[in-house]
Structure formats: C-alpha cells, structure tokens
C-alpha cells in the first residue's frame, strides 16, 4: 500500500483528474465509469479516445479495473487507498446529522452501555452502514458504591455500582460462617477506600490497606474482601463490549449471490469477534480517524468491505474505546469520515461526563 502516494505523485494533471473523476463517479453510483461520461464532465475539450488511453494507463498501474468488457472502469483496492490518502476531500458534518447525534446525549439513559447503544443506532441510521461501538472497560470507570448480598450459605453477590450508572453483579463463594455484620463491615471498609477509584486502582491498594489497618477490620470481613478480590481478578470474565447496530443496512439493494454470501460472512465474523483488544489495535496509532479498505481490514475475513474507525478518549486523554462504520468499499468516505470523527469526540465527552457523575 505504500506505493500509492508515489504513484499519485508521478501522474500528470490529466491522469490524476481522470482517476479522481472515475473514483468519485463510482463512489456516487456504484457503477463502472465510462470514457463518454467523463468526456461530458470535462470543461476542456478532450476526446473519448484520449480518456480511454488514460484509463488504460491507470489500469496498467493497478489503480483501475474493468469488470466487464467495454463497461467502463472501477477503482481497485489500491486505487481506493490512493484516492483516500491523496485526493479525498472531507466535508463537514451537516447540521441535521449533528443534531441527530447530539440528541442521544439528551437521553436519560441509566448507564453508558444504553447510551452507546443509542449512539450506535443513530450512527448506523445516518450513514446507512453498520455501526460498531466499543464500550469502555469498567475496569477504568470510577466506583460509586460496593455492596455484599448473602444469597445462601455457599453463595453471595458483590454489587458494583459505577459512577457512570453501570451496575455489575458478580456471584462468588463467601468464607464459611459469614455474618450480616461482617458483610456490612467489609462493604464499609471498601467504600471508604473506593472514593472514586477505578477497580484497577482499588485492587492495587486494598491489600496494602488491609495489612496496615489489620486491627480495624474483623478477620471474617477480611476474608470476605479477599473473596471479592478473587472475583474481580477473574481475567476470563468478559462482558459484551462490542455493540453492533444497523446490520440490515448492508443487505439493502443486495441481490447478487456473491454479495449476499459476503455479507453473511461479515455477520458471522461480527458474532465471533470476542477479542476486543484486536479492535482497539486498529486505532493504536493514536488520535484520529483511520480507514481500512477491503483486505486491509484485519479484523474481519471479508475483503469486500471498508471500515472507518476512530478511538475515543476519556478526560485524561487515554484511549478507552472506539466507534466505527462498516460498509461496502463504495462508502461515501468524504461524508462518513467527519461523522465518525464527530461521534468519537461526542462519545469521549459523554463517557468523561458520566465518569465524573
């Protein structure tokens, strides 16, 4: 893919303009673009034969392809990449799109996950693609309250209430002989320590505090806190963090058997995507929107799709999640890129505000 900008710089003005118009025509219509169409669009008088020669040269360079004989040209994956990197004109978010996204903030959703679900629905509705929203790990959210609930002699519940409204209930086996007073003592001890800390912060400090304040906390309460810690440290426990909305949009106007199979494969890939870290790796180069075209998209086995994705950050400028749109390679990149960028900024502010709540 690194040859793209070099090829672009070596094209003369006419070749570059023909290439740009072919790609823009294809992105607008989804149909191959022929020389006669371009001849009508050019201000200067250029013959169809001249344009055909330029298009043949661009095809030789691997930037255009002709799907059918005499049916015009479409951009290749390399051509799309070169266009996106060197010729794409990115617009701004329209007032209507901005208002639709902003409206999700006015919703009195009980927690961040519900709000992100609404953001995903709005994003897929605006772009007519499938939206992907990666929710932040609650490891990184501030804790508001901790409570222990005894269910049976061999079963108890630790309830974690986060500052953003998210609630998690985790079952665990309590120490033998557990009493209501020990449960209250353990909860009071942890709530005094939590004070806006994240789960990661609390795990790091709680054992030190137990050792330092050993005389202040009953041995049964200490055992209960240790049992709770064992639950929190269960690395295998993963809540669903990838929210996918608007899958039906990808089926609209699709009738070719190959396209339907391709989209079904995409759905299967989305269902299987449990390695969330891999999704975040797509944004590991820091702030800003990234575009993955066709087989560049390592997350899915699909080669006929594009992913436009941007990370979002918390108040400390730490990447905690991502938002994206997936659709055919014929995406309107100039429109989708600023929408994804704006949504990422919006979600970052939303999560930060909730975290301070």
TrEMBL record:
The keyword Repressor applies. NCBIfam families: hrcA. Belongs to the HrcA family. Keywords: Repressor, Stress response, Transcription, Transcription regulation. One of its GO terms (molecular function) is DNA binding. PANTHER family: HEAT-INDUCIBLE TRANSCRIPTION REPRESSOR HRCA. GO terms for biological process: negative regulation of DNA-templated transcription. It holds the Pfam family HrcA. This is Heat-inducible transcription repressor HrcA. Negative regulator of class I heat shock genes (grpE-dnaK-dnaJ and groELS operons). Prevents heat-shock induction of these operons. Residues 115-337 form the Heat-inducible transcription repressor HrcA C-terminal domain. The keyword Transcription applies. SUPFAM superfamilies: GAF domain-like (SSF55781), Winged helix' DNA-binding domain (SSF46785). Signal peptide: none annotated. InterPro entries: GAF-like_dom_sf (IPR029016), HrcA (IPR002571), HrcA_C (IPR021153), WH-like_DNA-bd_sf (IPR036388), WH_DNA-bd_sf (IPR036390), WHTH_transcript_rep_HrcA_IDD (IPR023120). It comes from the Bacteria.
């Amino acid at each position: 893919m690194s040859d793209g900008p070099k090829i672009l710089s070596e094209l003369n003005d006419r070749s570059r303009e023909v290439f740009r118009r072919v790609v823009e025509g294809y992105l607008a219509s989804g149909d191959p673009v022929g020389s006669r169409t371009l001849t009508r669009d050019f201000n200067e008088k250029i013959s169809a034969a001249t344009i055909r020669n330029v298009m043949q040269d661009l095809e030789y360079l691997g930037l255009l392809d002709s799907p059918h004989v005499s049916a015009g040209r479409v951009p290749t994956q390399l051509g799309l990449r070169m266009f996106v990197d060197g010729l794409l004109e990115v617009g701004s978010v329209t007032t209507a799109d901005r208002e639709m996204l902003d409206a999700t903030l006015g919703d009195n959703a009980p927690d961040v996950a519900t709000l992100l679900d609404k953001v995903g629905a709005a994003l897929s509705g605006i772009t007519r693609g499938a939206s992907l929203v990666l929710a932040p790990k609650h490891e990184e959210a501030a804790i508001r309250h901790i409570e222990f609930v005894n269910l049976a002699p061999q079963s108890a519940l630790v309830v974690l209430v986060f500052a953003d409204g998210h609630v998690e209930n985790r079952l665990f086996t309590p120490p033998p002989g557990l009493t209501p007073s020990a449960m209250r003592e353990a909860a009071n001890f942890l709530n005094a320590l939590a004070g806006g800390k994240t789960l990661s912060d609390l795990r790091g400090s709680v054992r030190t505090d137990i050792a330092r304040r050993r005389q202040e906390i009953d041995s049964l309460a200490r055992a209960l806190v240790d049992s709770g810690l064992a639950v929190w440290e269960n690395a295998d426990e993963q809540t669903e963090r990838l929210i996918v909305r608007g899958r039906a949009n990808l089926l609209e106007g699709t009738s070719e058997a190959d396209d339907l199979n391709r989209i079904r494969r995409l759905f299967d890939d989305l269902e299987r995507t449990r390695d969330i870290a891999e999704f975040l790796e797509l944004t590991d180069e820091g702030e800003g929107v990234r575009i993955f075209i066709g087989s560049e998209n390592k997350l899915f086995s699909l080669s006929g799709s594009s992913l436009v994705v941007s990370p979002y950050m918390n108040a400390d400028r730490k990447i905690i999640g991502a938002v994206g749109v997936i659709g055919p390679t014929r995406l309107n990149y100039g429109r989708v890129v600023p929408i994804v960028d704006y949504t990422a900024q919006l979600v970052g502010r939303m999560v930060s505000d909730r975290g301070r709540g």
